[in-house]
Fold:
Amino acid sequence: MARVYNFGAGPAVLPLEVLEEAQRELLDYQGSGMSILESSHRGKEYDAVHQEALVNLRRLLDLGEEHEILLLQGGASAQFAMLPMNLLPMGTTADYILTGAWAKKAVSEAKIVGKVHVAANTMAEVPARIPRSEELNLTPGAAYVHLTTNETIGGIQWKTIPKTEAPLAADMSSDILSCPRNYRQFACFYAGAQKNLGPSGLAVVAVRKDLLERCPSTVPLFFRYKTHAEEQSLYNTPSTFSIYLLMLTTRWMLRQGLDAICARNREKAAKIYAAIDGSSGFYRGTAAKDSRSDMNVTFRLPNEALEEKFVKESSKAGMKALKGHRSVGGIRASIYNAFPMEGVDALVGFMREFARVNG
Structure:
């Protein structure tokens, strides 16, 4: 079977060697006579996987003991609600920065829990962009400030994280561990695993220990960060196979080195943006140049008929999932950590030829 170049926004491409290792170990994990899929989450085989995943994440994120790292179910969508349930007590206000569809979902969930102030809103702007620091209208004494570091649909990314007096919280689902970042700056951040960390259904959450006591007693035990922190994310049966793949992926990232991964990500994105900018207007980027994402490159063609043709012909050429999100259309190339440079080169070559024939 020939593998294609998977430009999907998520679930997304995983490192090939991770998939191959999981394949080799699927039926008999480490000589145990059973699959890790079948292993008890209280058994020694799985416990070693679980603990290594947490250790690897702490190393990669460069987090000290002031943060707890949690492995939770429900992906980032559950965290849209769980974060305010834990960190937005009655009588306080949370600031949210509204930059796109995912930030909007986070705002909607937080409003169910408590009082929300939108500190900046660039959702309606074309091209899409990240707000400037001076545009942020922050609430004095806010419970926290929340932002979405990368918007997959609009193709925009925070290049410089603002400094805030209030604790800073973030949804990092689509760019965690993809670029240089001071993770200690954040009081709480979370990421659905299905972009850079592993398969879907799992969320990695980091939360400062001093914030664990904020959670009101009215919040059910399962939805308290403190519950999972006290049990090392083993309060209930965790997503064992997803965490196993997270462990393998973080091993791969440690072998690669974060600096090398980040440099490769910048190079991959730069190649596609150069093809867009050098097309004499045939391709039009949808994000402001100073906000362009290194993870999700979004662009349009002269008309929708050509976009449909582009998607169809690129798929025949072995490049899958290039169709833009259904809410905005266009083209989207998602090039997360595990996406190979060869796939980017193939796309750039295809773009140039497509423009030559159809321009």
Q: What stands out?
A: The mean pLDDT is 97. DSSP finds nine helices and 14 strands in the chain. The first strand starts at residue 5 and ends at 6.
